[in-house]
Amino acid sequence: MRANTNILRRQLLLGAAAGLAQSTLPSSLKAQDGAPRPIKTGPRKEPPTHMIPKDKSNPFFKIQGGPQTQPAPVPKRLDGEGVERGNGDGNRNGKSPKDKGAMLAPDRLIEEASTSEAYQGLIENAAFTIPALSVEDDIETAQATTTPLTLVLFDTSGQWGWMGEIYGIMIANLASHFGSYTLMPVNQYAAGKMSTYKAVVYVGSTYEETGLAANPFLTDIPQYPSVNVVWIYSNIWLLPSLASTYGIPLTFYEYPTATTAVDAVEYKGVSFKRYDQNADGVMTYGTLGDGVTALANCVRKNGTKFPWALRSKNLTYVGENPLVYITEGDRYLIFADLLFDALGATPAAGPQYRAILRLEDNSYQSDPARLRAVADWLQSQGVPFGYHIVPRYRDPTGFYNNGVAQNFGFGAGVQRAFRDAIVYMQGKGGVPILHGWTHQYFNASNSSLTLNPETGVTADDCEFYRLIWNASSSTFSYVGPLPEDAANHRNKVNTWVSNRMASAMNEIALDPRITRPTLFTTPHYLGTATTFMASTSRFAARAERALYFSGTLAAKAATPFDYTKIDYTKLAGQYFPYVVKDIYGGKVLPDTLGSVEPVPYLGYAARLPADIIADAARMKGVRDGVAAFQFHSYLDISYLQTVVTGLKNLGYTFVAPTTL
Fold it and tell me: Is residue 1 within 8 Å of residue 42, measured between CB atoms?
C-alpha cells in the first residue's frame, strides 16, 4: 500500500475522435490545465472485497450473525422469477439491453438535504442543459412459466433457525438461472406439493428441524420419482427410505484432523478448493447400494477420498453445506452445476466458455494515460470490456491533498482528462458501468462517521453501507445502513440511495459524448437492501457480488417492501457463476474470479494472475459458467496481459458484459 502524492495533471494528446468531440462541449467542460490532481498509482486504503479472503468475519466467506434472542418474523412463501436465458448471440432473443437511465425529469438535479455532505453544486456551469434521460422502470422480466420450476425449502427452528432463510435465498438465487421458483420454510410444506415442480432443493441447516420427522415431504420424495430432490447436509437420516429405497447407508460426520481434513473436492476431473478448517464435518457412508453414483469426491490431505455428493434415483445428496466457507474456485461451484442435472437443463447457446473483464474503480484520481494504454491493448487483443465510472471525486479531509478538501463534480474542468479517457475507452470496445456517485461517505457533523472505514476518499470507502475497521483485531464490522438510509428504512422508502444514483447519472449526462451506463456495481459490493432494490429498479443488471439478510422474505411479503424487517446483524454474501435474477428482483452478472492483488494486505494473501487462471480452469466445470475478473489500472499492465492470455489459452472467449 503506497500513499499517493499530488501531481500536476498532465496535458494529454487527444485522439482524432476525442479532439473532434471536444469542439461540441461547453467551455466549462473543456480542459483546464494546472489543477492539482492526485493520480492513483498504487493500492489505496480499502477493504479487501475484490477477492474473498479466508476470514471468518467476512460475510462473503461465511454467514455472519449470532443466535436468535427473540422471535424473528416468520418467513413467508416467495414465488420468484427466473432470469431470461440468452441465445448466445450477444443479445437476449435479439433484443438490446434496456437503457434504464435515471428516473428524473431532464431539468432536475438532486440536491441532498442530508447532513452528510456540505453540498457543492453538481455542475460548474448551470447554464448547461442536461440531455433527456430514460424513464423506464422495469428490468427485463423472465419468460412466463405456468408453474415455478424449483421448490426451495429451508429450516427455521431454534436459535440458529434464521440461517435457513439466508441459505434458502442463496439457493433460490442460483435456481433463478433456470426459471421461476418457490421459496418457503419446510414446515409449511403440504402433502403432494412437490408434484408440480421439476425439482426440490432442501437445505438442512438446523439439526433435527422441529416437525420434520412427521413432515409429508419425507414420504413424498419416493412417491414422486419424476421430481428430482437435492438434499443438502443435515437431517437426511430422517428420510425413512434412505437405505431401503435409495441404497445410501449413513455412518457419521467426519470432522477435520491434521491428516484427514478435506481441502479439495474432485468433480468431473477437476479439483475444486475447500476450506480445510471447516469444522462442520462431511457425511460419510457405509457400503453404497447398486445404482448409487458418487458425483463428486472429497479429497483428504492424506490423499484418501470419499463421496461428497451422491445420486440415487430421484435423490441427490450433498454431504455438507456448500453455502458456507466460500472462496473463488470453491466446491460451491459444484453445487451450482448439479442444479443443471436436477432441473434437466441444458447450457445456453453460444460460446461454451465465456469470460468478462471489468476495469475497476475509475474516477478522477485514475491515470488517463494508463486507462488509454489498457484500452489500446485490449482492443488489439479483440477483448471487449466493462469499465467503472465514479463521477464525483471527494476527499473531504484532504487526506491525499495536504489537508485541503477536494470535491470535484464530473462536469468540472479538472475532470476533463478523465472524461476524455472514458470516451477513448468507449471507442475501444468498453462498456460503462456506474460504480456509485462518490464511492465514499462522509458525515462532517458526526465524528464517528467521518471515515467509512478508512479515509473518506472516493474509491477508498463505502458509499451505501456502514463499515468499521477494528484496528485491535484487524477485522471489519459490517454494520448496515448509514444514518440517512436508516431513516429511509423506517419510512419504507429508498430515496436517499436512489437519489445518489440519480445524481451520478445526471452528472455523467453532462458530457453528451459518454454513453449512459445500464449496469451498476455497488461500491465495495457492500450495500443495504435499499441499495440493491434501488439499483435493480434503475439498471438493466448489476455486475457484482451482493449481500443477503435475514428478514428479507418478510420484507418482500409486505407492500411496499418493508425495510424495517431486515436484520442487518445476520447476513451472508454471494457471488454467482452464471447470470441470475436474485431475491431483490434484479439481473446479476457473474463475478467469479476477483482481481489481481499483487501484495498481501491486512494479513490477507496476495492474489496473482496464476491464482485467477487456476480458478478460471475450475470454472470450466460449471455449465453456463463465466470467468469474470477485474483489473485496477494503477497496476502494471503485465498482470492484465498475463490473465487475458491465460484465459484465452484455456479456451475462453471474451464477451461484453451487456451481452450476458
Answer: yes
Q: Which residues pair with 389 in a beta bridge?
A: 434
What's the CA gap between 452 and 475, in Å, rounded?
14
The Cα–Cα gap between 15 and 378 comes to 17
Distance of CA 404 to the CA centre of its chain: 35
Do 639 and 596 touch, CB atoms closer than 8 A?
yes
Nearest partner of 601 among 460, 440, 435, 457, judged by Cα: 460
Q: Which domains does the chain have, with CATH numbers?
A: 7-38+51-55+362-593 (no CATH), 78-85+144-342 (3.40.50.880)
Alpha-carbon span 65 to 232, nearest angstrom: 21
Sign of CA dihedral 553, 559, 560, 565: negative
**Pairwise CA distance, residues 358 & 628, whole Å:** 8
pLDDT digits (tens, 9 = 90+) for 602-643: 778 899 999 999 999 999 999 999 999 999 999 999 999 999
Using an 8 Å Cβ cutoff, are 594 and 51 in contact? Answer: yes
**pLDDT at position 210:** 96
Give 223-265 pLDDT, tens digit per residue.
999 999 999 999 999 999 999 999 999 999 999 999 999 999 9
Q: For residue range 355-380, list pLDDT tens digits in order.
A: 999 999 999 999 999 999 999 999 99
Q: Among residues 358, 356, 444, 360, which one has the least CA distance to residue 394?
A: 444
Q: 181 pLDDT band (50/70/90 cuts)?
A: very high
The answer to whether 313 and 246 are in contact (CB under 8 A) is yes
- Amino acid letter for position 151: L
- Output phi, psi for 199, to 5 deg: -150, 155
Which residues, in sequence order, are CB contacts of 211 under 8 Å at separation 6+? 157, 187
Does the structure show a pLDDT above 80 at 134? Answer: no
- The whole-number pLDDT of residue 71 equals 67
pLDDT on residue 451: 84
Q: Is the pLDDT of residue 206 over 50?
A: yes
What per-residue confidence (pLDDT) applies to 475? 86
User: Of 486, 437, 445, whose CA–CA distance to 462 is shortest?
Assistant: 437
Residues in a beta bridge with 435: none
Whether residue 282 contacts residue 232, with contact meaning beta carbons closer than 8 Å, is answered with no
Q: Enter the DSSP assignment of 498.
A: H
Of 593, 569, 659, 605, whose CA–CA distance to 59 is shortest?
Answer: 569
Nearest to 537 by CA among 562, 563, 508, 501: 501
| Nearest residue to 88 via CA among 354, 465, 387 | 354
Q: What's the rounded Cα separation, in Å, for the pair 412 and 417?
A: 10
Residues with Cβ within 8 Å of 465's Cβ and at least 6 positions away in sequence, in order, are 478, 479, 480, 481, 482, 524, 526, 527, 528, 531, 547
Whether the predicted pLDDT of 145 surpasses 60: no
